[in-house]
Structure formats: structure tokens, C-alpha cells
């Protein structure tokens, strides 16, 4: 408000039917991300999505916060893990961007979860230093490799272009 009065802090949504559907029919792999709200109302939406049996995106929970930071991610992860009976994250894989606050919260709140970074975010950072279609094609081939042997083969091709890549 113009007089600096705060009327909103945050809110969290995880519908029981959606949660039950995720628990019953989805793999224990979830993606975490945030995006900006633009317009009259400012803030960020933090969301958690899974994949259903048809490999379609399955929205699990979301919240709206004033800012994406360690505190808001901690609040969100705590509520989420309580809703899905996730405990310390054993048996769950989390995929996210490299947001510093989120990385710290996952280590603290879900130490037993498998945590990986999203390939799209990795390639965005990779492409800042190593540009060109050859790198991008090889990167995505490495990401999609279904065996360690195939992965190592693609990585050798990347190294043949530039050992630092």
C-alpha cells in the first residue's frame, strides 16, 4: 500500500484430491520452480509439479509469496513435505533450478532426497560460456543418454571440441 502497510504475506495451496492423486498415481519425482507475477499485484509463484503415468505435467502444490528467498522456500518445502508425508525426503527426487536459497533449504529440510538441477537451467548457464549449435546438440544428447556408456561417449565428443566444456 502507498502508506507501507502490508496486507499480504503469502499463501499456500495443495488440494487433497490433487495430493492423493499424486501419491497414488505419480512417480516420486517433483520439479520445484518460481516465476514472477507481473501487473498490479507483484510477487512470485512457487510451484511443485510431478509427472503422471502418461508423462504429463501434474501440478501438485503452489504458493504465492512476496519474494523468492530461503525463508519462503523453507516455508513452502515444510508445508509440501508435510502434505505428501515426505519426511526427510527419502525416496523422493527433487529437480530445480540453481536458486541458492532453494538449494540450501533442500539440504536442510530434505537431506535424504535425491536433488538434481534442471537440464534447461544447466544448458542456459553452459551456453553463456560455450556457444554454438554443436555444443547444444551434444549437450541434449548427453542429457538423453540412457546408459553410462552412451553418456560418456557424448561427453568425449564435447571434450574433443573443448576440454573445458
From TrEMBL:
Residues 29-125 form the MULE transposase domain. It comes from Lactuca saligna (Willowleaf lettuce). This is MULE transposase domain-containing protein. InterPro entries: MULE_transposase_dom.
Amino acid at each position: 500500500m502507498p502508506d507501507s502497510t502490508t496486507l499480504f504475506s503469502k499463501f499456500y495451496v495443495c488440494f487433497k484430491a490433487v495430493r492423493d492423486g499424486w501419491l497414488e498415481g505419480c512417480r516420486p519425482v517433483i520439479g520445484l520452480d518460481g516465476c514472477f507475477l507481473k501487473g498490479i499485484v507483484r510477487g512470485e509463484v512457487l510451484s511443485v509439479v510431478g509427472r503422471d503415468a502418461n508423462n504429463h505435467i501434474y501440478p501438485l502444490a503452489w504458493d504465492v509469496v512476496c519474494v523468492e528467498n530461503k525463508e519462503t522456500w523453507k516455508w513452502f518445502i515444510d508445508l509440501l513435505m508435510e502434505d505428501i508425508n515426505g519426511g526427510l525426503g527419502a525416496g523422493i527426487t527433487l529437480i530445480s533450478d540453481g536458486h541458492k536459497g532453494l538449494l540450501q533449504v533442500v539440504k536442510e529440510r530434505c537431506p535424504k532426497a535425491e536433488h538434481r538441477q534442471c537440464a534447461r537451467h544447466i544448458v542456459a548457464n553452459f551456453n553463456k560460456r560455450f556457444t554454438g549449435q554443436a555444443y547444444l546438440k551434444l549437450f541434449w544428447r548427453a542429457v538423453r543418454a540412457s546408459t553410462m556408456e552412451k553418456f560418456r561417449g557424448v561427453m568425449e565428443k564435447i571434450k574433443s571440441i573443448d576440454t573445458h566444456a
